[in-house]
Amino acid sequence: MSPSRITRLVFNFVVLQVVNILAGPIVSRQVGLYQTFTLVASHSTSPIHFQPINANNLTFWIGKPTSSFCFDDVDSTLIQCPQGNITALDYGGYGAALNSQVPAGQAVFVASNGALGFTRPHGLYYPDGAFTGPFNLDITDSFGLFTFTGDGSTGWLACPIREQGPWQVFAAIEGLGDGDVPGGCVEECIGFSALTSVYDSEEPAVFQYE
After folding, report:
1. CA gyration radius for the chain?
2. How far apart are alpha carbons 141 and 123 in whole angstroms?
3. Residue 189 neighbours by CB under 8 Å, 6+ apart
């Protein structure tokens, strides 16, 4: 394992431990303390089946590309820009973070309206009422299953802007209403499972997500 990957893993481990401490006691851990993975939606016969889940505009979407940034005019000896078109997450036993290179990391949360989101670069600042967990990762022989069980959530929802998408990702929390979702109608949202695949790279997926 390269020194740069070791440094990134240690740093993101610290970020996730901060999330864990802020969230309180850890109830259970389904897998080892640290896993890195990508996500796809699973709902057979639906338009989102096996579509990637990407970070875009501080939220997560199906049908939108990964939105990322890296300096293009900086000395390459200081910053090596990753390819930047993959959304990968790090899991730490309760909390989750994006697999980015930016200092201070980017933590994942569920907003008070149920939207799955992530923090801006360079800081762990959450919107009021956000949930930092519990996120869970269960591993089978062929894939993993990423879930959120806070605030009475019963699963994930893909809520469309229009009939054929794109779809914003929400947790099906208690009290989720029409005014919370982009299309204005919760009944149009599609329930799905978030399947994981191991992301195994010596380098982070992006410099920072936007």
Report:
1. 16
2. 36
3. 157, 158, 159, 160, 167, 170, 181
CB neighbour list of residue 154: distance below 8 Å, 6 or more residues apart: 172
Structure tokens at 8: 């990134």
Kindly state the greatest CA–CA separation across the chain. Answer: 51
Residue in 59, 46, 77, 37 with CA at minimum distance from that of residue 199:
37
Per-residue pLDDT tens for 6-43?
A: 444 444 444 444 444 444 333 333 344 579 999 999 99
Residues contacting 185, CB < 8 A, separation 6+: 178
- CA gap 10, 84 in Å, rounded: 21
User: Which phi and psi angles does 190 have, rounded to 5°?
Assistant: -110, 120
Integer Cα distance of 71 and 80 in angstroms: 9
Of 59, 53, 21, whose CA–CA distance to 40 is shortest?
A: 53
Retrieve residue 105's tokens: 């990391």
What is d(CA 38, CA 91) in angstroms, rounded to the nearest whole number? 11
- What pLDDT, on the 0 to 100 scale, is given for residue 30? 39
